[in-house]
Specification:
The chain has about 425 residues and is an alpha/beta fold. It is built from 17 helices and 14 strands.
């Protein structure tokens, strides 16, 4: 199955990872990686290109001050497992020296609860890294405190998932006294410090009958347009709508649990589409509506043929990894899953650890069977993985690859 056959739903630009990897600074390592695998099976880790990942998800903490009903990381929150802070900084520095380009501070817990949040963000910016932050909004004062060091191309996204405070309270169950309106009211203050980076409103769309870990999820699909109006009113640059993901019983992977054959499907899609139309009417030069690739797949019913069906090898585990207090992992889908672990939480802190992660990564590229492990995963890396497969089978195509130079550098994978 080739790339053209796999891509039936247009990729959102933020999810066109093949284009991002063709940027001038990353295209040479793409070519090295392809040539390594095209030459035949080689399990010697010293033969694998000598690079850290281009991009990482950084989970600063497992601590969270919310108890969101729809959280896919619920089982790993508040485990009282921490980094040695200096080892964390050492890891970031070594990875930067080995080619790390971007860090998405996200997942596992609320990053602003990390005691040295500000120091860590400023350290990464001094390393020249692109940095983005995904937060629940409770720590907006801390985000304002580091706003001055962020650059154009960096971004902050708040996971709010509601258009009214009653729905926000029911979905997020904050352990502190805070309202949706209070969170949004901080955005003009952040913008006043530095307006060069984008601030987004993230909205996971949920419907009646959605569930995770045997818990029913609060429905919010009727509030999408209200949320868009609230976001625009408070100077967010955009609102991003994405579908709810649950965990698969077999391998704990994140999946969309709503098929086109489901009797609820047509009604749910009708409501979501109508809400999107109302929200889209608010778009202008300073405010955008983003429909994620997963949402496009849900609305078209194409998810079963477009982003499911991985090649055996997952190539993105070389270019993008997860650094968590629980360890280093090959994919956010398998955060805290033994079969996705590449190393310990300080695996990149020194040369010995780096060699160990490379050794494991070499084996995983050969042995991790994505066709089987990710059989039901609606994977945003499906397109780029098949792109790599095509290049490996036809390495002569490398000569025809043209560097992609976007208006704005974007190394977030």
């Amino acid at each position: 199955m080739n790339t053209a056959e796999k891509q039936k739903v247009a990729l959102s630009s933020i999810h066109d990872f093949a284009a991002k990897l063709r940027q001038p600074d990353t295209l040479p390592r793409v070519k090295e990686y392809v040539k390594w695998l095209a030459s035949g099976e080689n399990r010697n880790p010293e033969a694998m290109p000598d690079f850290a990942p281009v991009s990482i998800n950084l989970d600063l903490t497992t601590a969270c001050n919310y108890a969101c009903d729809h959280c896919v990381d619920k089982e790993i929150l508040n485990l009282n497992i921490r980094y040695d802070h200096q080892r964390l900084l050492d890891s970031l520095q070594l990875m930067a020296e080995k080619g790390l380009k971007s860090v998405i501070v996200i997942g596992g817990g609320e990053p602003t609860t990390y005691p040295k949040f500000e120091q860590t963000i400023r350290f990464m910016k001094k390393l020249g890294l692109q940095v983005s932050i995904v937060s629940n909004g409770a720590g907006n004062k801390k985000i304002a405190s580091i706003a001055d060091c962020l650059d154009k191309g960096d971004w902050v996204r708040l996971s709010l998932d509601s258009g009214t405070d009653p729905t926000f309270q029911a979905m997020h169950l904050p352990k502190i006294k805070i309202t949706l309106e209070e969170i949004c009211a901080h955005i003009p203050d952040i913008k006043a410090v530095n307006s060069s980076f984008k601030v987004g409103f993230s909205y996971i769309v949920t419907w009646q009958g959605a569930h995770i870990f045997d818990e029913n999820i609060v429905e919010n699909m009727h509030e999408m347009a209200e949320a868009a109006a609230l976001a625009k009113q408070n100077q967010f640059d955009y609102i991003a709508f994405k579908p709810f993901l649950t965990r698969a019983e077999i391998n704990n992977a994140e999946i969309i649990d709503l098929e086109a054959s489901d009797k609820r499907y047509q009604k749910i899609v009708k409501v979501i589409s109508e809400q999107l139309d109302k929200a889209s009417a608010l778009e202008d030069g300073s405010f955008k509506i983003h429909r994620t690739t997963n949402l496009k797949m849900l609305l078209t019913g194409e998810k079963s043929t477009d982003n499911i069906g991985q090649p055996q090898r997952c190539h993105m585990q070389f270019f993008r990894q997860i650094l968590s207090p629980l360890g280093t992992y090959n994919c956010p889908v398998y955060r805290n899953q033994p079969h996705g672990q590449l190393g310990e939480k300080d695996g990149y802190a020194d040369a010995k650890g780096y060699a160990g992660v490379r050794d494991t990564c070499t084996s995983m590229i050969h042995d991790f069977n994505a066709t089987k492990e990710c059989e039901n995963v609606t994977c945003l890396y499906n397109h780029v993985n098949w792109w790599f497969e095509d290049l490996i089978k036809n390495p002569e195509k490398l000569d025809a690859l043209i560097p992609h130079t976007p208006e704005e550098e974007d190394y977030f994978l």
